[in-house]
């Protein structure tokens, strides 16, 4: 049983929840402070955490299920749980249903708008896995999907969407898009061979890396704009400077002729970045609140 649990956790890359979870919490704390001048309650933190676990687990399981045939052909992904025969399709479908159930349960215990927007979230979580079959904009669609985490955190405590939340949403969407473009460079040859759509397959690796830089510049601008539309101040500025430095370093690690450090750029640095931005945002608001 424990071995099966480990396989499921490996399939959904549970450790990579760190990518989006800090931004979901940041959306919650920003929304609560901007709209109501308060901190989220302990219950709100807990339900947001459960919603995030449910949403990410469902999304990753669906992605692995939908892409199983493609993964089996790709040497980089052939050892994933489904193509390797470690999990059956029925098991993954059941896991996905339970994960969506957790998401629905958590949303029902948050603000009403969180429930009303669930159909959109579920559609995006399902839809993005199909997009690389017909558009090289698949990376941006993934970005818009992952960025539902901070937007969802905001909605969960405020019951509304405003321009501040949209700025934050688009900043995180562009951040995700940029690092997904970098990650997709590893599959440049495979995607072209199989007729799959991606920015690297469409424009080449060198141009794709420049496009990724462009998305991350927009991310930095978006984070900066938050300074002018919220109560955030110096501690947040320090966090955004560190985050911008991490983005610069991320792009220094990958080159068109050397993608060997892609995992460090993709996993390690982006996990650190989201924690840094959230941590300094929290510190800023705690200092402000005191």
From TrEMBL:
One Gene Ontology biological process: ubiquinone biosynthetic process
Residue runs in coiled coils: none
Necessary cofactors: Mg(2+)
Protein name, per record: 4-hydroxybenzoate polyprenyltransferase
Entry's transmembrane regions: 12-33, 45-66, 86-107, 113-130, 137-157, 163-184, 205-228, 234-254, 266-288
Gene3D superfamilies documented for this protein: UbiA prenyltransferase
GO molecular function, one term: 4-hydroxybenzoate polyprenyltransferase activity
Subcellular location: Membrane
Top-level lineage group: Bacteria
Family indicated by similarity: Belongs to the UbiA prenyltransferase family.
Membrane-topology annotation of the record: Multi-pass membrane protein
NCBIfam families for the chain: ubiA_other
Keywords noted in UniProt: Cell inner membrane, Cell membrane, Membrane, Transferase, Transmembrane, Transmembrane helix
Main location: membrane
């Amino acid at each position: 049983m424990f071995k099966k649990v480990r396989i499921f956790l490996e399939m959904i890359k549970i450790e990579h929840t760190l990518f989006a979870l800090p931004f979901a919490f940041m959306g919650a704390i920003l929304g609560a402070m901007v709209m109501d001048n308060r901190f989220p309650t302990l219950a709100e933190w807990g339900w947001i955490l459960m919603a995030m676990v449910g949403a990410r687990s469902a999304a990753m399981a669906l992605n692995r299920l939908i892409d199983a045939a493609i993964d089996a052909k790709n040497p980089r992904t052939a050892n994933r749980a489904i193509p390797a025969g470690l999990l059956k399709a029925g098991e993954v479908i059941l896991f996905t249903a339970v994960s969506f159930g957790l998401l629905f349960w958590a949303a029902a215990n948050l603000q009403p708008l969180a429930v009303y927007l669930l159909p959109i979230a579920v559609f995006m979580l399902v839809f993005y896995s199909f997009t690389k079959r017909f558009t090289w904009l698949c990376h941006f669609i993934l970005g818009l999907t992952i960025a539902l985490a901070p937007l969802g955190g905001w909605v969960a405590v405020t019951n509304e969407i405003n321009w501040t939340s949209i700025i934050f949403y688009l900043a995180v969407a562009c951040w995700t898009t940029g690092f997904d473009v970098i990650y997709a460079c590893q599959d440049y040859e495979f995607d072209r061979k199989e007729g799959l759509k991606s920015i690297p397959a469409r424009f080449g690796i060198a141009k794709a890396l420049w496009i990724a830089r462009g998305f991350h510049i927009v991310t930095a601008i978006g984070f900066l704009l938050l300074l002018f539309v919220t109560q955030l101040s110096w501690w947040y500025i320090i966090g955004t400077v560190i985050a911008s430095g991490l983005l610069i370093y991320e792009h220094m690690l990958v080159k068109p002729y050397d993608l060997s450090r892609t995992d460090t750029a993709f996993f390690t640095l982006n996990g650190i970045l989201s924690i840094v931005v959230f941590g300094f945002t929290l510190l800023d608001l705690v200092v402000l609140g005191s």
